[in-house]
Amino acid sequence: MEQGKAKPWGVRIRAVGMAVPEKVVTNHDLEKILDTSDEWIRTRTGIRERRIVDRDVASSDLAERAAREALGKAGWEPQDLDLIVVASATPDHIFPSTAAVLQAKLGVAGSGAFDVSAACSGFVYALSTAAAQVKMGVARRALVVGAETLSKIVDWTDRSTAVLMGDGAGAVLLEPTEEGSDEGILSVYLGADGRGGDLLIQPAGGSRYPASEETVRQGLHYLKMNGREVFKFAVQIMGDAAEEALKRAGLTSEDVDLYVPHQANQRIIDASARRFGLPAEKVWLNIDRYGNTSAASIPIALAEAEAQGRLKKGDIVLLVAFGGGLTWGAAVVRWS
Ligand code: UT7
Fold this sequence. Notes:
This protein is α/β, with parallel strands linked by helices. The chain has 2 domains: about 10-175, Peroxisomal Thiolase, Chain A, domain 1, CATH 3.40.47.10; about 185-335, Peroxisomal Thiolase, Chain A, domain 1, CATH 3.40.47.10. The protein has helices at about 25-30, 40-45, 60-75, 100-105, 120-135, 160, 215, 225-250, 265-275, 285-290, 295-305, and strands at about 10-20, 25, 50, 85, 110-115, 140-150, 165-175, 185-190, 200, 225, 260, 315-325, 325-335. A 5-stranded mixed beta sheet has the order 1-7-6-4-5, with helices on both faces. A 4-stranded mixed beta sheet has the order 8-13-12-11, sandwiched between helices. Strands 2-3 form a two-stranded antiparallel ribbon. About 50% of the residues are buried. The model has no long low-confidence stretch (mean pLDDT about 95). The site of oxa(dethia)-CoA has 21 residues, from helix 2, helix 6 and helix 8.
């Protein structure tokens, strides 16, 4: 796409909401069950604590709380929605979709409802999918949710993954902007490289390795990750994706008021911010309190940033994610 000011999509984020479980699990708590230390976790990842759901809570339960918070802020009723899209690496079931489960929890029927599978990049993928439908007039009022209960698929005996993950959900509502408005979504960039699929994977439970005694014995229903390789990929792709989304919006990093990256590792975030010379005050960081909440991390960050007055009308907000697939995605939004 040509450089220069891009035409806004005509779709804006009307409201945001979030939900996290009450239960806090600190690094010190994990020291008691794993061969790890608060010092290792803090210095390697930036994480101090994470929220973990009780056994009977699933992703749709957190999604519902986040969605209701966003709906309340917008003054919308669930029946006002005509599209529900959920991004999750930990859906309630393989099918029906968590979006359909959420729709029922919201007490409505009729709107389109489906899930997007792009692991930690899921929210940016879902945002772009729903926004495109609003832009095309297929939907007018869309709910996009990133919801995760990663604690359910983490091997709590594996220190290399267990210390990283947390549970939570974030939701945004989308609607068309007024004619001629320069606000809302300015650009989106999505990418994937399926050759790296094995680097971050939940091997069993699908049609390749259906649940069996053998898959359970081998622990194949747990999340597996090659941390070092994912780290290298992430540092490079966060910068590349941000650069491409900014280029598509006709902007540069100097225009960015708030950088809201996927919260996977503070060192990855710091490296990508350094590449653009973004000062710490322009980078939203909450990984210390929530760990990596995958598809939920960006909408949770948006909800917190807005609640703390860090997102003002007209601000340029840069969203960047990467994750299993391998996938990546970035979006530039002029806040409204
Ligand atoms: O949302 C997207 C998904 N994931 C990511 O973005 C994760 C990307 N990767 C990372 O963030 C980092 O690679 C990790 C945080 C996962 C690991 O950090 P690292 O600096 O790459 O450590 P490492 O894997 O190279 O391991 C260094 C050492 C190893 O010991 P040896 O072999 O040097 O003796 C590990 O066994 O640290 C050990 N180690 C731990 N020690 C204490 C690994 N996990 C732990 C732990 N506590 N929890």
